[in-house]
Write a structure and sequence with these properties.
Largest sheet: none
Protein name: DUF2029 domain-containing protein
Order of helices and strands: HHHHHHHHHHHHHHHHHHHHHHHHH
Number of domains: 3
Shape: globular
Number of helices: 25
Radius of gyration: 25 Å
Distance between the termini: 20 Å
Number of strands: 0
Keywords: Membrane, Transmembrane, Transmembrane helix
């Protein structure tokens, strides 16, 4: 784009104008289409007839983005049920459900906790610790209520409970997809990141993470409609279903109090952005709702808050955690006498494999430092190669400070990056926890290339973790520690990659307007820079400029 001005022809009256974000809508006629703007989707679009045409209008009927994506989400979630079919038919037994990668907490906890037996525990007993369900409060409440709808005397009670829960979670996913679509406005097709993600097939039915997803989606939808109090209530419920999503409230508060004055569209204006008060209300309501819910559901005046902290501090590193790496390195130490490769590996990397040479804490600290250095280098190199795109005003458009823009262009990317850091440094990172990234990925507008890179690492890890656990019962058939270590590192790299994209998107949308010789004039039509997403290549938008083809995207 540098050194050459790209001008768009002035649209005729009534012709559609195009917008990439909910905040950049003009006359309500345009629609964003990933088949034109996302390189990967564009290359795959011939399967469905090619990229969307220039005269494509926004559909308000039954085939709108929300309707189509809700239906497709049911299909994808149904594939997740098919993936668990072996266990549905044969039962969830150890180690069989590991060998067939169909393990699920839903029927296993139902059977082991006594929810399906004659001595069904009460609500306080089921949610409390120790001896409870081992689930977050709201997820445990849903599990306890659902178990009351299943006939415990039925020999197939486990399967009935799993099927009923799957239907409930599928309905929740549909609501989440619709909420994300409405939050995105004209960019509603980006909700496909939530509806069609391959991660739903592998991890969607392991636990109750979809409950947290729908609450996060509804909370951000409410916030985008200036309903900060309702959004905080919903996010507080989401924190009670998955504590990791609390970072969204933290990020909202930090963004509101830190640089709220810079969010105003004109530097000459003074005072704080009016969105700051809404964001602080959103964050504060989230914390209060979560604390009140713990007190109501859990025994004790503090809702076992102290027990939760003690359990977290004293807990050992779990599967998927970065802090498990020292243990895996010690178990993966090569035998120098086995081969010349083993001798070479011991000579070069013996200090790293030896648990005696370097303690677990020091090894973990070095790994964290290395990840941050690598992330910084990638960030720097990527920013140099893909300069941030300026968010220019559209001629004739009034300046906007609506919450929808703030949610999709500020809060979602920043929360995506922060949540990725939280997951990377967590003491335990089960396979299903990565699902929490999906609504933020959709709202941020990642390219599908980046989504599929991350989803590929999740799929590899999904297979590896069950084979690694199964190795405890059959070491000759299971996955050795060194191979599990490779899959674990690949998954952590995938999460780090998604978090890096969140940083890039936030920085791109935050770039202040600059004037220069290559800056397109604002003539009433939208330019390439004005409509391009921070996650998309400008080259894709320019198309065949060297062949003299029209440059209009309308």
């Amino acid at each position: 784009m540098t050194g050459r001005r790209v001008r768009q022809p002035r649209p005729k009256p009534g012709s559609p104008r195009w917008s990439q974000t909910p905040a950049e809508t003009d006359d309500g006629e345009g629609v964003y289409s990933p088949t034109r703007l996302d390189p990967l989707v564009r290359s795959a679009s011939p399967v469905i007839g090619g990229p969307a045409g220039r005269r494509l209008a926004s559909s308000t009927g039954i085939w709108s983005a929300a309707t189509v994506l809700v239906l497709l989400s049911a299909v994808v979630f149904g594939l997740g049920i098919v993936q668990k079919q072996h266990c549905r038919a044969s039962g969830w037994s150890t180690p069989d459900h590991f060998w067939h990668a169909c393990y699920s907490d839903i029927p296993v906890v139902f059977a082991s906790s006594g929810l399906g037996g004659p001595d069904r525990p009460g609500l306080s007993e089921a949610l409390g610790s120790p001896g409870g369900l081992g689930q977050p409060p709201l997820a445990g409440l849903l599990m306890w209520v659902t178990s009351g709808l299943v006939d415990s005397s039925d020999p197939g009670a486990n399967r009935s409970f799993f099927d009923l829960t799957a239907l409930l979670l599928a309905a929740m996913l549909a609501v989440a997809v619709a909420a994300v679509t409405f939050t995105l406005g004209r960019r509603g097709w980006d909700a496909a990141h939530l509806a069609l993600s391959p991660v739903l097939i592998t991890a969607g039915l392991i636990s109750y993470q979809v409950l947290a997803i729908v609450l996060v989606a509804l909370a951000l939808f409410a916030l985008s409609r200036n309903r900060a109090l309702a959004g905080g209530l919903l996010l507080g419920l989401g924190v009670a279903a998955a504590p990791q999503v609390a970072v969204i409230a933290i990020v909202a508060g930090v963004l509101a109090l830190w640089r709220s004055g810079t969010y105003l569209d004109h530097p000459s204006e003074t005072g704080r952005d009016p969105r700051a008060l809404a964001a602080v209300t959103f964050a504060g309501t989230t914390v209060i709702t979560w604390l009140v819910l713990r007190v109501l559901l859990l025994p004790g005046l503090t809702g076992q808050f102290g027990d939760m902290l003690d359990s977290w501090r004293g807990g050992a590193p779990g599967y998927g955690s970065l802090w498990l790496i020292p243990q895996l390195l010690g178990a993966s130490e090569p035998d120098p006498a086995s081969s010349w490769a083993g001798r070479l590996a011991q000579l070069l990397f013996g200090w790293m494999f030896s648990a005696n040479a370097l303690g677990g804490g020091a090894t973990s600290a070095l790994v964290v430092i290395a990840l941050f250095v690598l992330g910084g280098l990638l960030l720097r190199l990527t920013v140099v190669r893909v300069p941030p795109l300026s968010a220019l005003p559209v001629a004739g458009q009034p300046d906007t400070t609506n919450m929808a823009e703030w949610v999709t262009r500020r809060l979602a990317p920043a929360s995506l990056a922060t949540l990725a850091v939280v997951l990377l440094t967590a003491k335990s990172l089960p396979a299903q926890t990565s699902l929490l990234l999906l609504p933020l990925i959709a709202l941020s507008g990642l390219r599908w290339r980046d989504h599929l890179i991350w989803a590929g690492t999740e799929a590899v890890y999904f297979v590896g973790i069950w084979l690694y656990i199964a190795a405890e019962t059959a070491p000759d058939r299971g996955l050795p520690s060194q191979f599990y270590l490779i899959m674990l590192l690949a998954r952590l790299a995938g999460i780090a990659w998604v978090g890096l994209q969140g940083v890039l998107i936030y920085r791109a949308t935050y770039a202040p307007p600059t004037a220069g010789p290559d800056q397109p004039d604002v003539t009433g039509a939208l330019s390439i820079r004005e409509i391009s997403s921070p996650g998309l290549d400008e080259g894709t938008l320019l198309g065949d400029r060297d062949t003299g083809a029209p440059q209009s995207l309308g």
